[in-house]
Amino acid sequence: MSKHLVIVESPAKAKTISQYLGSDYHILASYGHVRDLPERTLGIDIKAGLNNKSQFTPQYSVMKDKQKVIKQLRDASKTAPTVYLATDPDREGEAIAWHIKESLKVPNHKIRRVVFHEITKTAVQHAIGNARDINTHLVDAQQARRVLDRLIGYKLSPILSKKIRKGLSAGRVQSVAVKLICDRETAIRAFVPEEYWVVTVSLDKNQQGIQAKLVAEGTPDAKCDLPNESVATGMVTRLESSQYTVHSVKKTKQKRNPYPPFITSTLQQDASRKLNWSAKKTMMVAQKLYEGVPIGNDTVGLITYMRTDSFRVSDEALAAVRDHITAVYGPNYLPASPNRYKTKGDAQDAHEAIRPTYLTRSPDAIRSALTPDFYKLYRLIWDRFVASQMKPSDIENTSVMIEATTTAHPPLYVKATGHVVLFDGFTAVYIEGKDQEDEENAKRLPPLSEKDVLSLVAVNSQQKFTQPPSRYTEATLVKELEESGIGRPSTYAPTLSTIVDRGYVDKEKKTLFPTDLGMLTNTKLQEFFSGVIDVRFTADMETRLDEIMEGKHVWEDVVGDIYTPFHSMLSRAQNEMEKVNTDQATDEVCPKCASPMVIKTGRFGTFIACTNYPECKTTRSMAAKLEVPCPLCGSDVLERKSKKGNVFYGCSTYPTCTFASWDRLVPGPCRSCQHPYLVVKKGKGRDQTICPTCHTPAE
Description:
single chain, alpha+beta, Rossmann fold, Topoisomerase I, domain 2, Topoisomerase I, domain 3, 5 domains, 17 helices, about 20% strand, globular
């Protein structure tokens, strides 16, 4: 008897689900996409489309590296009673299933679509038992996205390549991401810091220390500004001669609710904060956890589908996690009913949130079977899911206003704050990572009552400056894209990788900086294509794609409505955009043809090239040299890029000398310890130059 054919995307997934289906099923992998638009031509009839919006027909063909795969699938499908298309359970997966169907050339009645949001025996068998037809609305929405991305990218890229620099490319989402980073950089550069001072006092009660900050003068509500050193010094003098009495003590109780389980964007954000991972790495590891990991004699899918924007959790999973919480943490940590989280209105809600598939397989129980990266991400997902179904934490916040009095001046008021955790609740399992350090972890205060007299220990003043907006990290950029409705879960990781790989953005540690090329390209795009390379436009387009998915629009009409005005922008840019010469002149001449040499910028940084190209193709690499010699051997220190595109600084004699630093070295010496050089610490806002030994900031 012939076997039913099940087609999945990856061999790992095929191996996992083969355990759950009997001998009547044959499982093969498509290895992802099988058809696409042609590589070297547009593949869309623009003239017909402009004249008749319903004719933006894409010209798909089987990808060259999938010819053998399609032949194998065709051969297997000929004798199969049923062909189950079990590609990923999202819009892109639906489109892949449709492309496979179109490539197999088998009768429609043999084709069935199955989806499973977790790769467990129950989910796989349930999916086979509830097979359906391919959802053409989902396919149409994905086709609209692919066609628009091709039209915009394919038409924009040649203009940038011709007018700015050869080889440049643009894209609907990636260019908006670059715009966000460039806009933030522009705001940072325009920011003018303002000086202010902070005065703090150290007090004592029964040998228990209290730290307080000067906040008011005259009355507790009259804010005290300290704009310069002169004013701050006067306040320090008054505080040093003051008597300190507790004016008021306020205690408030606060509940901190647990965070919802992960969706794609929040998983990427927290993996960046806690694990220091890129979005790309996070999704690669999550994909493997979803598809299946060898545990003992089985291959087990450990998490649900990792591309999702929904907080929904199945009733079965809720029952399992509630049993787990009761057994491990006790009934006091379990809310009376499951916690429910509202999904955003524009979310597709096609999947559950990201959660463990088996509450019986805790991270520690299977740690020996996991690689370190698998364990770290699985632990993060596990903890977040368990915590999401626990009770809130209870906190008591204390705010103490302390009056500092002298006979010659109005009273000053200093404020001390602290908190006590009355019940840890969900924080017994999980605390979300932070993008910036805050003062949440205030110290616990000693018991204080009104009119208590306190002893002065010391008064300190510190100069500070207002800070510009923080630069984006991968985590905060993903958050911004999500909140602005730009892209979808599957697009965040490739977008971030693309803008770095193509030289528009540099990533140093976690922080994203626009390159000169990124700033220039963004300026040109905003001059001629602001109506398309725009946050609101891109978000509105995502909404229209969702509406295609819901059957509210014909996809060709949506493409035509967007492409028609874009076509006019293209015509204007081709005629009016001035060519930019980004080459920098040098005093060198070509050793082969004696033509002038210029500094050019390529994908992998700057290099020197002959101006007689293409007749003469002489080039040589060029790395920026720092003014500080190598601390280990005295040779030059050069600016380099890692394989991942991150800038670092290393000795020119590598591998003979292995000195390397993520921080740029600048001439010293340190004003405190006389260390011969300083380093520039990149911040999300203002950079800081400090001594690498004693950490004293530069003057």
